[in-house]
Amino acid sequence: MILGLPLIFFPSSLLIQGGLVVDGLGGEGRIASIRVKNRVIVEVGNLTPLLQESVIDATGMVVSPGFIDAHSHAAGGILKEPSALSQLTQGITTAVVGQDGGWDQPLEKEAAEIGAVKPSLNFAFFSGHGGIRRQVMGSDYKRAARDEEIDRMSGLVDADMKWGAVGMSSGLEYDPGYYSTTSELMRLAKAIAPYKGVYISHVRDEADSAFTAFSELVEIGKSSRVTSQISHIKLGSSSVWNRADDALKMIDKCNIYADVYPYLYWQSTIAALVPSRDWEDRKIWEKGLADVGGPHNVRLTKYTPDRSWEGYNLEELGKKLGRDPISIIQEILRKTTDGEASQSVVVTAMQESDLVKFIRHPRVMFCSDGSIGGSHPRGAGSFPRVLGRYVREMKVLSLGEAIRKMTSLPATVFGLKGRGVLRPQAIADICIFNANTITDRATPDAPKTLSVGVRDVMVNGEWVLRDGQVTTATPGQMVKRGK
Ligand SMILES: [Zn+2]
Fold first, then answer.
1. Up-side HSE of residue 359: CA atoms within 13 Å toward CB?
2. Ligand 1 mean position to 169 CA, how many Å?
3. 101 by DSSP, 3-state: which?
4. Ligand 1 centre from 280 Cα, in Å?
5. pLDDT tens for residues 275-300?
6. Number of Cβ atoms within 10 Å of the Cβ of 227
């Protein structure tokens, strides 16, 4: 036996050497190495390789915790594409799903379906108020819920929390959440309080009445004594533009959180431009178009009845057809409301000065609000866009602070234990990227184009992306609150 060998022989460990280690807690990082063994980080510092240890050279690269997507819609697409390349190439290692009110089945079943496809990345879950409301009220949901219905909903929220949900989500611009009263939401949020869950909401209005909607969220959190968070915060109409400071003051004063995606445009159907359903009334469209700054800010990205219209904004389309934009909108709706035909628009409705303030603020974390293979570029570009455009080019915030808001901030708020930080005993979710080149490439015309700059991604101690290529590993876990 060679003396001393057993002490230095750790065949299963791996060393990531010489990168700029940005640990996720907000500091700017230092050159160091990281040793990973069995799925856990065991050492961080000035380390030399052990005998037979595999070594990854990270010289010139940033080594950070894997990113946590605070508002993700990857739960649908993952069933078809478990490798989730569009998420891994953004450096995302945990997608927080069940957003905007969630799904139409118990969370445990949803999580089991995702777990069964063996995804490359981790998933954490919100219990969905909308899905639960539908389970209890069925198709008779266009009204306030009765007391005993709220009690039953509360029991279902409790079951999801017992399973390990990180909190409860609502989507109050959508059916069936739209019909819920503030007091219903307050009573249901009480069900998450014993678990220290988070109430997260796509609030009732993201345009003219955004501030009233934010206030409702604050009241729900206060009365139920839970932490609350505004989903994909935005000021989406001209009457609230340039009021980011007011929104952030409210966030600070009320100790709430928000998440944001780094784009100035939302994507939906053209009907989402106006709250009314009286589409033949020209006045509602005059206001709807004025609210977003004019017809040039509404771009038709999909229109199956006439594909030659796709790609034009409404001002261009008006000139091309010699018609006014409102009659075009009305025709689009007439031809797509029933049957197979479909349409979608990308609407530039936010101000960059507001977005920059949200991106910079310490209580605002990052999200994609994106899906796998979706038609908004945020699904493939959000995190590299923050690091490329807003950190490197515009210097809105430092690299260390941006990474904190992508990692330890969501991990702490959502109770994802042992994640979001690079230190001994932490779970080895790691992203290695080039800070000089990381960039989003997806656009409204090519929304699935992958980002560049993320070289390697490790999930639970296994490489899922190496040199920009997916591996065959399937280490993604269904992460539960506090575990
Ligand atoms: Zn939403």
1. 28
2. 10
3. coil
4. 27
5. 788 999 999 999 999 999 999 999 99
6. 20
**How far, in Å, from the CA of 367 to the mean position of ligand 1?**
11
Distance, in Å, from the CA atom of 436 to the CA atom of 413, rounded to the nearest integer, reads: 30
CA dihedral 368, 198, 356, 352 (to 10 degrees): 60
Q: DSSP assignment of 28-48, as one string?
A: --EEEEEEEETTEEEEEES--
User: Is the backbone peptide bond immediately before 106 cis, with ω within 30 degrees of 0?
Assistant: no
399/22 Cα distance (integer angstroms) = 8
**Cβ 44 vs Cβ 21: under 8 Å:** yes
Tell me the pLDDT tens digit for each residue of 5-48: 445 444 589 999 999 999 999 999 999 999 999 999 999 999 99
Instruction: Establish whether the linkage from the previous residue to 176 is cis, with ω within 30° of 0.
Output: yes
CA 338/CA 346 separation, integer angstroms: 21
pTM for the complete prediction? 0.93
Q: What value, to the nearest 5°, has the Cα angle with vertex 273 and ends 271 and 279? A: 50
The strand pair at 54-57 and 14-21 is best described as parallel
Ligand 1 center to 447 CA (angstroms): 18
Report d(CA 133, CA 110) in Å as an integer.
16
Tell me the domains of the chain and their CATH numbers: 65-265+349-418 (3.20.20.140), 267-347 (no CATH)
